[in-house]
Design brief:
There is one protein chain. The chain has 173 residues and is an alpha/beta fold. It has a single domain (3-161), classed as 3-Layer(aba) Sandwich (Rossmann fold). The protein contains seven helices and four strands; from the N terminus they run H-H-E-H-E-H-H-E-H-E-H. Helix 6 (118-126) links the parallel strand 3 and strand 4. Helix 2 (29-43) packs across helix 3 (54-67) and helix 3 runs parallel beside helix 5. Residues 1-5 and 11-25 have low confidence and may be disordered.
C-alpha cells in the first residue's frame, strides 16, 4: 500500500481521501510524521509545506526535520481564536492555551511562515516568531495583471462546434 493511502489514518489535512464527514482518526502526530517522512525521502521536495493548523503542520514539521528538508508553514488563520469567537469563555480554557502553544511552536520552528494578512503576522511576532521569516501571501490577485486579449477566432469556432451550453457563469464564444 502506498504511503499516501495510509494517510487517511492521520489527523492531518494531507489525507487526500478524508472527508469532513469522516470520523476523526486516531493516529498520532508521530505516526503521521513517519509516513510523511517516507514520502519526503522518496520524492525529495524542495521544502515540506503545511497549512493551518497544528494538526497538519506538526507532523509535517517533524517529517521535514527527520529528512533534513526546510519546513514552510502557511498560517491561514489562528484557529484557537476562531473557536473562541464561537464558544463563550474558550480563551480561558486549557484547550485554548494548548492550541495556542502548538500553533506558536510550529510557527517558531518553521524556516518560513506565510500568512494571509498582516494581522496574524503581527500576532505571530508577538508570540516570538522572527518577523524576517514571515511573508504575506494574500488570497488575491493583482487586478492590473489581468489584461484583455484579442478574441481567438479558432478557439471560438472550436467551442461553437462543440455547442457549449449557454448558462449564467459559462463562457460561450
Amino acid at each position: 500500500m502506498r504511503a499516501s493511502a495510509k494517510w487517511t489514518a492521520c489527523t492531518t489535512s494531507l489525507c487526500p481521501d478524508r472527508t469532513a464527514a469522516a470520523p476523526r482518526p486516531t493516529s498520532t502526530s508521530g505516526e503521521c510524521a513517519r509516513l510523511l517522512a517516507e514520502e519526503a525521502r522518496a520524492f525529495r521536495p524542495a521544502p515540506v509545506q503545511a497549512a493551518s493548523n497544528h494538526e497538519a503542520a506538526l507532523p509535517a514539521l517533524l517529517a521535514a526535520r527527520a529528512v533534513g528538508l526546510p519546513f514552510v508553514y502557511e498560517v491561514r488563520g489562528l484557529w484557537e481564536y476562531t473557536t473562541a469567537s464561537k464558544i463563550a469563555g474558550w480563551e480561558g480554557t486549557e484547550r485554548f492555551a494548548l492550541e495556542r502553544a502548538l500553533e506558536t511552536l510550529v510557527a517558531r520552528e518553521a524556516d518560513l511562515v506565510f500568512t494571509l494578512t498582516a494581522a496574524p503576522a503581527d500576532e505571530l511576532v508577538l508570540r516570538g516568531v522572527d518577523r524576517a521569516r514571515i511573508r504575506l501571501a494574500p488570497n488575491a490577485i493583482d487586478p492590473d495583471s489581468l489584461r484583455p486579449v484579442a478574441r481567438d477566432a479558432a478557439l471560438a469556432a472550436s467551442r461553437a462546434s462543440r455547442k457549449a451550453p449557454s448558462s449564467p457563469g459559462m463562457w460561450v464564444p
